Amino acid sequence: MRKSGNVNKDISTENLLVNINEYLRQKTFEYPIEKNYPLIFVLGMHRSGTTLMTQVLRYHFGFSVINNIVARFWDNPLVGAVLYKSLNFEERETNGLESFYGKTKNVDEPHEFSYFWQKHFLMEDPSNYNAELQRPNIDWLALHKELQMVANVFQAPLIVKGFDIVFHMEQFIKSIPNAFYIFVERDKFDTAVSIYNGRLAYYGDESCWLGSYPVNYEELKSLPAKQQILGQINSFNEAFKSGLSICDERLQFKIKYSELATEPKRILGELGKKLQAQFPEHCFQLHDVVPNINLSTYKGSPLYDEFASL
Fold first, then answer.
1. Which of 81, 112, 216, 299 would bridge 150 by S-S if both were Cys, CB 3.0 to 4.6 A apart?
2. DSSP assignment letter at 215
3. What DSSP character marks residue 130?
4. What is residue 20's DSSP assignment?
């Protein structure tokens, strides 16, 4: 369905980007991997605060990030990284931590990078994806190499949003070295209201699916919209937690969105200590000023209460 309002994409631009990426897919570019930089994967349900977490990490620790230029070259992100670096963009220290349903505006801000994951995970039809069938066909070495080349262009630990990792958590954790996982969880009913509002903002219709499709999508799609959304949240949160249960505790950090918003200094301090302990060879820049984060909640609203009653 056509998206509505200010979330509607320019079709001509999208088609040109697709053509550029199809061309780049046929080319092999190399960049020296002189250092195996930490790859920081930010995980969590849609509308849970993963974009905010990525913005905070970039600002507070001085990490590099898959930004809005790199992500435009999803079939060969090295090209986007070199292009961005060569143009000498002056990165802003902070942008007010703004986004519109996970989408940021400025060139140096984080991107969801979904086309990259769909390419590597062989997701031709995300609504009917068979992860077990495709898993043996995934080139894990190529995936890791692409991300490490980008990190080496930026010469810094790289933050990557990676929602679709949820479909391959166990194999991903085993196959991608020097990785660290940050899982963000938000109040379930706040998340549900945000997804519901997102359906209206994007499509003007509560019945139109927004976000990724869980393994039980076929069961959920015939339910009323609000029950669909709660089912989507429950399914993905369980999948993330199940996947992270096999991950070394030293390689993961779980936070609640409400704690990040109300106690950012404590949360970032704990995370910084854990990262430094795990990657002592990297000197993480640490800003003295903790970003001001507004806690967004729908508690007390009729829609929140309606979801809570289901």
1. 81
2. T
3. -
4. H
